[in-house]
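Entry: GtrA family protein
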Amino acid sequence: MVAGRRELLGFAAVGLLAYAVDLGLFTWLRGPAGLGPLTAKALSFVAGCSVAYTGNALGTYRHARPRGLRPYAVFFAVNAAGAAVQLLCLAVSHYGLGLTSQRADTVSGAGVGMLLATVLRFWGTRTLVFRTGTGTGDTTGSWTGASGGRVGSWTG
């Protein structure tokens, strides 16, 4: 079953906000703060993940009511996997296919990579992090419930 429009729009809005925080903080850390690129990116990535988790927990998936650090850790892992997908797309294009222009890097990393990573993040967020029961607002499948999550939410 395809996710509802409200869920998709909420996920997208939160993702855009998290992306803005990530980009803005990275730019500031690299510029005025004078940090190195890897340190700046690591800090901005953690901040972006935290904003995305909070936005999804309080907004898009507020009915799931996750508790404790485990859902955040799983959310962080899903987002790290998404980042790895983006890097893999860039590496395949740049090093494997020899497409080395800035445009090719942008298309592969920020275009194709971001699209695939977003699909992975959406799937991971709704099935691994904010588990819900089959009914709207039912929290029996949440992290605090007994059923253990959504059964067949991805495959139907």
